[in-house]
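Exam revision sheet. Question 4 asks you to relate a sequence to its structure. Input first:
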Amino acid sequence: MKNWLPIIVWYLLFPSFPSEEAAGMEITSYYSPRNRERPLRSRTDYIILHTTEGPARGSLRKVRRNGETHYFVNTDGHVYRIISKERVAFHTGRSMWGGKTNLDNRSLGIEVVGYHNKNITTAQYQALRELLRQLQSIYHIPDERVLSHSMIAYGVPNTWHKHSHRGRKRCGMLFARESVRKKLGLDKKPRYDPDVKAGRLVVGDPYLAKVLYGREREVKTGVGRFTADNANIIAAGRTAWDIAGDRYNSAGVLYRFPDGKELRGDQIIAWKKLTAGTIVVLGERQRENELEQIKVIGWDGKSAREIAGDEYDNRATIYFLPDGRIRRGDELTKSELAALPVKTRLLVGYIDGGYITARRSAFDICGSRWKLPDTFYRFSDSSIVSGSQITDKAIPEQTRIFFRN
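Answer key, C-alpha cells:
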C-alpha cells in the first residue's frame, strides 16, 4: 500500500488530468535505443508536425534508430512512441521561430507517414487529431503553436542563397493548409513568418511561403512549379538545392546525367553548371534532419563568400585554417577572407564556446547540447569530431567546443 500512496494522492489532486491513451487510438511503445540518454526538456512550447517523405517501414526504422521523433503515425492510424514525451527528440534540426533557435529543446515532434504535398489517410486524421488534443491539453499549447517542420526549418547561406533563409524544407507543408488543420481540430494558425518579418531570415522558397501563409483558395494544388513528373529533375529555376535541400552534396543523393553518367553528391563541385535534365535520386533512408556538415573551401565552393554568402565575415562563421589557426569571420579582414586557402574548413551559424578545462566542462559551456550530433569538438591535433561520437570522460582539456547558434 505504501508504494501506491503517491499514485493515489496524484489522482485525488488531479482527477481530470488527461491520459495519453484514448478509445479509438492505438499506441504502442516502440522506444528508440537513444531514449534513455536524451535529456529532459525544461519546457514545451510547440508541437511540430513532420511528413516522412517515404514509406512506413523504412521511415519507422530510421526515426527509431536515430531518436528523431516523439510519436510516429502510420497510415492505418496506429501510433508509436519513439522518444518519451518529456525528453528531447532530434526532430527539428536547424530551426528558428520568433527568434528562438534549437527548437528540439522546447517542442514535441510527430512524424506522419506521407508526403508534404499529398493528403494523409482518414485513419491518420483521426489518430493525429486525438493525439494533438491530448498533447495540447497536457502542455497547454494553443493551435497557433502547432507548426509544420517547413515553418521552423531554416538554412544558412550556400551556393544559391546569400543569406540565412526560410524554405530549407517542405516537410509537413500540408499541415499549414486551413482545410487540413480543420480536420485536425486546429482552428488557428500563424498568419506570417515572424523571423522573416523581423529580418532575421529571408524567403528562400516563395511558393512554400505562399502555401504556409497565403489564403488556401489562392494556392494551387500540387507543389508549385514542381509536378509529380518533374519534381526531381534539374531545370531552369530548379536547382539541386530546390530538390534535395541541405542533402544536395551528400553521398546519399545520386545525380544521373542525361548522358547516363552518375555521380554522388559528395563527388560534385561545380553545382551551378549541372546539366538541365539531370535526375536527382534521393535515398529513402536519408535522415529527415541531416547532420550539420563542415564546409571546405575548394570543395563546397571556391571561396568563403561563395559558401557562406553575405555572412562570410560574420561572428557566427568559424574558420579552421590548414595551419591550425581558428578564426571567426569578424576577426579576419576582407583581404584575408578573400585569400583563405583551399582546404580551409568552416562552420556557418555557430558559437565558439572556447576551451574545456578542469573547471569548465562541455556541459558548463553549452548545457545539454554538448552531446548533440551538430556540436563539434576540435582537439589539439586539429581533428574535429561530432558530439554524438564523444563521451564526457574522453574529452581532454584544451579541447575547443563549437555549437549551433
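Marking note for examiners. The mean pLDDT is 85.
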